[in-house]
Amino acid sequence: MNLLLDTNILLDIALKRQPFVEQAAQVLSTAQHRKFPLYMTATTITDLFYIVRKAKGKDIALAFIEDLLQYVDVAAVDKWVILRALKLGLADFEDAVQVGAAEKAGIDVIITRNEPDFQNVAIRVLNLGQFLQQYPNTPATSEKNSQDKTSSL
Questions:
Q1: pTM above 0.90, yes or no
Q2: What is the distance between the alpha carbons of residues 78 and 92, in angstroms, rounded to a whole number?
């Protein structure tokens, strides 16, 4: 099952935003344990760099992105994706671009904290809690792996 991580999930990890960072790290751990391929859009990378650089500096932003790319693949953003995003009619254009990229990449589920931003899209959308409830990790490894993810990223 291919999963697209919304930008907010990755920002939660990068900036260690409370109370969200724990569940976000658990999603990464669970996906890796279950061998679910993880994706982010190409535009997410530039958003991450911009926001993390402002909060923590350029070197930390670049290191975070480099580390993240060990676990998460990139869904391309091209002309088709942008044209598709324009037609989706979502309130937030950035979210529409993510949906277009997800459709093109064959994503099964988008994981986000903002499910209302993805109303009426063809791809299944889950929040962190829903994902973790439907796809639990093994209890013994879940806590350790989620700690490993936040410390390595």
A1: no
A2: 18
